[in-house]
Amino acid sequence: MSTAARLPQFVNRLSSRLPRTVDVRVRRLAVASLIGQTLLVVTGGAVRLTASGLGCPTWPRCTDTSLVNTPEMGIHGFIEFGNRLLTFALAAVAALMLVYLWNLRKERKDLFLLALGLLASIPAQAVIGGITVLTNLNPWVVGLHFLVSMALVVFATLLVNRAFGRTGRFRTVRHHVLPGVMRPVTAAVALFSALAVMLGVVVTGAGPHAGDADAPRNGLDWDLFSHIHAVPAYLVTAGTVVALVLVILRRIKGACRSAILGLLAVTLLQAVIGFTQYYNGIPALLVAAHMLGAALLMVAATNAWDISRSSPVD
Fold it and tell me: What pLDDT is stored for residue 72 in this prediction?
């Protein structure tokens, strides 16, 4: 039998082994995607905060003659190439997710499209990363790279919620009835969280951690934009407190209460880290913690909003 004739048989055998319902394999891949996207934010921060932004001085190769880092490049080359390598791991997770969802591509289009979006964004991120290197770490391009990562964290959070049946059309988890005002409150918190992250990128572009000694800065007043960045952060805190009061007064339980408590914890942690780094000369470790906190804030805010919009209201 020819190879062309065997191919349909192979595809059919493979398809028969793939899930026909959202099972533990799909859920684990969704969680792996969220963890991976969050980890990419951390490793990207490590590249910049260790001045390894040009550890691989060219793109798509690491050097003009090598695809990978070389011993002569030292720790900076290792850190930068390690961040690039994580992108391939995320691509593998996203591709595997699509494979496992193949039999569900019509029935669970919500999951399939989210997984497809995550996979399609990875080469886009690689190109933006390449432009970052080729423009000598232009702070606006670096900022775009970070914001795309934040968007992918949001998509991965939605993917996890839908894979576990917590939200969306195929919700299987039963949620507590919420007051109607909870939806706009959590939507506002999510919006202000995104705005705080975007302004944080501007602050970072004006700050001292450029990723390389010769990398340019955006020329803006760091102190002024730090205070502007704090405004949506205050609004996030206020909105979270309002949501918490609603949870307490209405004795809301289940996923919504957990989501609001998680959001409160992340918000307070981010506030502590933000104030501490501001008044202590912006140490690199605290900046790294603040970047991780930004990713966790987007997870928590997205989760709270997603659960609120999928819950019944009175």
Answer: 76
